[in-house]
Design a protein that fits this description.
The protein is mainly α. It has a single domain, classed as P1 Nuclease, CATH 1.10.575. The chain has 14 helices and five strands. A two-stranded parallel sheet has the order 2-5. It has a two-stranded antiparallel sheet with strand order 3-4. Helix 4 packs across helix 14, helix 7 runs antiparallel to helix 8 and helix 8 runs antiparallel to helix 14. The longest helix is centred in the last third of the chain and has 32 residues. The chain is globular. It binds zinc ion (ZN). Zinc ion binds next to helix 6 and helix 8.
Length: about 325
């Protein structure tokens, strides 16, 4: 599942389904990467404002000394020279070759509200476990510096991903990928190459990855948007910092946000489905078709409520990412 918030600008202008298929590739599920390019870049810019000097130095040194493979195809382009912002989208570029797609999300079934997350983390891992594992690598001074640089790139990305609400929930719909949605005037259309798969674009996951945030940004860019959000959530950010690092709690918050701002915000009721992972949206008693038949539509009311939730999520992600990097820099001293 997953289509990164900040990514899909390009895919939309070219061939949306082609891109989605390439990204879904080996995952066996309809998916693209999480928050699109601009969402991840916004999280990174916000985090930069909250880094301690020692964390900034550690991060810049590890990233600078251990550059990415120059041959790697960068989905979000090479638009920035800022190493931290550039790192924010790297894990989506390597997820297929490294076969670690499940690290980008956690499928907490709808209807659950608290408890241990381990049971929702499959044998191939999940975002909460990936964050904990990469924190350990980053703090280990004796670890291979390339691995530590990659740990930073993963953390920058995954803390963003877990705050994309549809990355912390599933309703037997692969995190909303099987829920067709008309987004303003953009009608949901079936995958022209594989209509039998019953996946549509736009869908609930995709609009939360990309459209909701990009519409809210208007013609702004991630740096300016980050400035605005950091300012807007100035008071809250002190409380987020004071609460400390609790990755599982953050996943639960994101899960609740998905319930209220993503699923429950439609006038049509979307019932709770059994907590299973679908190979295709045609599974689960034709989940894709059943959701399409609801004719779910997003307009101004849904958008403004969702944008508020997304803004909070992005601001939290930026502040919390900085907390993780600051703590790691202290630990390795
Ligand atoms: Zn991702």
């Amino acid at each position: 599942m997953t289509a990164d918030w900040w990514k899909l600008a390009k895919t939309r202008t070219l061939a949306p389904w082609l891109a989605v298929c390439v990204l879904a590739g080996s995952l066996g599920a309809p998916s693209a990467p999480a928050w699109g390019c601009k969402g991840h870049q916004t999280v990174a810019w916000i985090a930069e404002k909250h880094l301690t000097p020692e964390a900034r130095q550690m991060v810049q040194k590890l990233l600078g000394d251990n550059p990415m493979d120059p041959k790697l195809r960068r989905w979000c382009g090479n638009a920035t020279t800022d190493l931290i912002v550039d790192a924010s989208t790297w894990p989506d570029d390597v997820r297929n070759e490294r076969k670690n797609g499940p690290w980008h999300y956690i499928d907490i079934p709808r209807g659950k509200h608290n408890g241990e997350l381990d049971g929702y983390c499959g044998p191939e891992g999940c975002v909460t476990r990936a964050i904990e594992e990469q924190r350990v690598i980053l703090k280990d001074k004796s670890a291979d510096p390339l691995k530590r640089a990659e740990a930073i790139r993963y953390l920058i990305h995954f803390v963003g991903d877990m705050h994309q609400p549809l990355h912390a929930i599933s309703n037997a719909d692969n995190g909303g990928n099987c829920v067709a949605v008309k987004y303003f005037r953009h009608e949901a259309l079936p995958n022209a190459l594989h209509p039998e798969r019953e996946d549509y674009s736009p869908n609930l996951h995709q609009i939360w990855d990309t459209e909701i945030v990009e519409r809210d940004m208007e013609i702004s860019n991630p740096l300016r948007y980050a400035d605005e959000l950091d300012e807007k959530f100035h008071a809250e950010s002190a409380a987020w910092e004071a609460a400390g690092i609790h990755v599982d709690n953050w996943a639960w918050e994101s899960h609740e946000r998905a319930e209220t701002a993503a699923y429950h915000a439609f006038q049509e009721k979307i019932g709770i489905e059994p907590g299973v992972k679908l190979k295709s949206c045609a599974d689960g008693n034709h989940m894709g078709k059943r959701m399409f038949d609801k004719q779910l539509a997003v307009g101004e009311t849904y958008q403004s409520n969702a944008a508020r939730a997304a803004q909070t999520a992005l601001a939290e992600a930026g502040v919390r990412l900085a907390m993780i990097l600051n703590e790691a820099a202290k630990a390795v001293k």
